[in-house]
Predict the structure.
Amino acid sequence: MPTLAESIVWTDHPVTSSLAYGTVDVRIGTVGEGGPVGLLVASVHGDEGPWGTLAINRLLADVRLEELTGTLRVVPVAHPLATEADARQTHLDLLDLNGSFPGDPAGSHTQRLAAVLAEHAVDGADVVLDVHGGGSWNINCFTYRFPGSEHVAEWMGTPVIMDGPDRASSLTGHARAQGAVAVWIEMGGRGEFEEDRAATVTRGLRRALGKAGVLTEADLPDEPGSLGVGKVPLSTSRPGIYRPLLREAALGTVVAEGTVIGELLDPLSSEVVETFRAPFPRTVLALLRPTLARIEAPGQVVALVAEIV
Ligand SMILES: [Zn+2]
């Protein structure tokens, strides 16, 4: 019996781009027929690959066609130009694809790309799993849930679950407006444990698609994450050098109030000018900058934390 990877049918959708290229193709794969329809998307932000793409491709390679009970759509690289540049957006218009839905077929590149994804990937989907995660400057390990998708967030099995930003212009917001159940996964980033994070995402996608009825139910144990409330980004008040005290091994763990997460050093003297501490009695670390980092301006996030109640 073939795998999903061997059975999927790919369609390339040209999106008008730049003078040099003319168009850039975004590739959407479909396998199966009938409902429910599941959609997997990765690299909506081009600086958050390749972990989500890898997780999706491993799922396609692992799952046999006989396990498919509905339709699965996949977009392994949703924003090819931004991914090529390892940037959040493309320089062509600097628009956030995750704030450009439902898009505009006569608009700028990102607006046209959003319109293609809305029409050919999102519309008609019943369950949407949008995989973001970490990237060039951070590591993270959570799923954003929305009203109605709390159960799907638990199926994903990421260490942390938090309430997501409820924006209609995001991919998940557009999907929800079309009647889908959607979550936004943030799990990835460089480091020694990057393969473990990608494996958690693959497992979560398999479990969620099984419980949603797109695939047969997987024989996987539950991995209930901790619900973090009142999420707060810790940001620098000035430029400098960020020195983490809590690094990759601390990601997803719970620390006591006052625990030092990292320090900002003066760029000239290396004196400590700002100290970042856990703000809650039980603070969960959902996103970290795990290595020494240049902080080029005020307002740079060094950690995203929430309270475990
Ligand atoms: Zn993202």
User: Anything to note?
Assistant: The longest strand covers residues 23-32. The pocket of zinc ion is lined by residues 44-45, 48, 132 (CB under 6 Å). Helices lie at 4-7, 51-62, 80-84, 109-122, 150-156, 171-177, 194-211. The radius of gyration is 20 Å.
